[in-house]
């Protein structure tokens, strides 16, 4: 495991401490969880970008149309 030192404005550090307390976590655990979420989002974006390069635009639009149709049918 690595140790990372970061500099934050005092107000931001205090708000992170409050958030961690409200969730019953240490600041370390809170930052670890937030980092994992950010990295998962980044991985997903990169995966979609890689697939988009290989993808068939017409097929992708057809899938989105089907999803829209499904969502519209669920609202009626």
UniProtKB/TrEMBL annotation:
UniProt-listed GO biological process terms: regulation of DNA-templated transcription
UniProt-listed Pfam families: RHH_1 (PF01402)
InterPro entries membership: CopG (IPR002145), Ribbon_hlx_hlx (IPR010985)
Recorded coiled-coil stretches: none
Superkingdom of this protein's organism: Bacteria
Residues of the Ribbon-helix-helix protein CopG domain: 4-38
Transmembrane segments: none
Protein name: Ribbon-helix-helix protein CopG domain-containing protein
């Amino acid at each position: 495991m690595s140790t990372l030192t970061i500099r934050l404005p005092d107000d931001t550090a205090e708000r992170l401490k409050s958030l961690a307390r409200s969730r019953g976590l240490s600041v370390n655990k809170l930052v670890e969880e937030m980092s994992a979420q950010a990295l998962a989002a980044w991985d997903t974006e990169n995966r979609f970008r890689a697939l988009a390069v290989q993808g068939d635009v017409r097929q992708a639009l057809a899938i989105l149309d089907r999803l829209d149709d499904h969502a519209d049918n669920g609202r009626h």
